[in-house]
Amino acid sequence: MNIGLQVLKAKLRGFHVAGLSISSRISRSSDERRARLWNAKRALGAHCRSHLIAYCLLRGVPYEKVERCAPNNRPNPQAVLDVMLEHVDRWQRRSLSLDAVKSMLEPSPCPPAAHGKTT
To answer: What global pTM score does this model have?
Structure first.
C-alpha cells in the first residue's frame, strides 16, 4: 500500500475516533449544546464520507460496493477528487479528473425488482 493510502486510512480512523468522542458527549448533554454537537457530528460525517469514497475508489473498489443507489444524496465528485488528489503520487494524478471521478460515481443500473418471482 502506498504512503498516500496509508495516510488516508489513518485519517479515516481519526474521523471514527472523533465521531465516537462526539457521540459520547452528545449522550451526556442536553438542549442547545446537544444540538450543536449533533451538527458537528453531521459535518464530520459529510467530510468523512468523501474521504471514505475516495479511499475505496483509489483501492479499486466500485462505488456500488461502498454505498447503495441514492439518487437524491449523490456524493460531491469535486470533494472526492480533491481528497484523491491529496493522496496519490504525481503519476496517478495524471489519470484523475473530475470527469473520471464522475464516471466512477455513476451507479450501475439497478436491476429491476423481482415482483412475485420465486427462485
So the answer is: 0.81
Residues whose CB falls within 8 Å of the CB of residue 68, separated by 6 or more in sequence, listed in order:
none
Amino acid residing at 22:
I
Please tell me the chain's helix, strand, coil percentages from 3-state DSSP, rounded to the nearest 5. 65, 0, 35
CA distances from 97 to 55, 81, 90 (A): 16, 7, 13
Let me know if residue 82 belongs to a domain.
yes
- Domain assignment of residue 56, given as a range: 3-105
Q: Over the stretch 29-78, which tens digit does the pLDDT of each residue have?
A: 888 999 999 999 999 999 999 999 999 999 999 998 988 866 788 899 99
Of 66, 63, 48, nearest in space to 102 by CA? 63
Does the residue 110 lie in any domain? no
Q: Which three cell numbers stand for residue 6?
A: 496509508
Would 38 be classed as within a structural domain?
Answer: yes
Is 16 a member of any domain? yes
Domain count, the chain: 1
Report pLDDT for 43: 93
**Residue 111: per-residue pLDDT:** 59
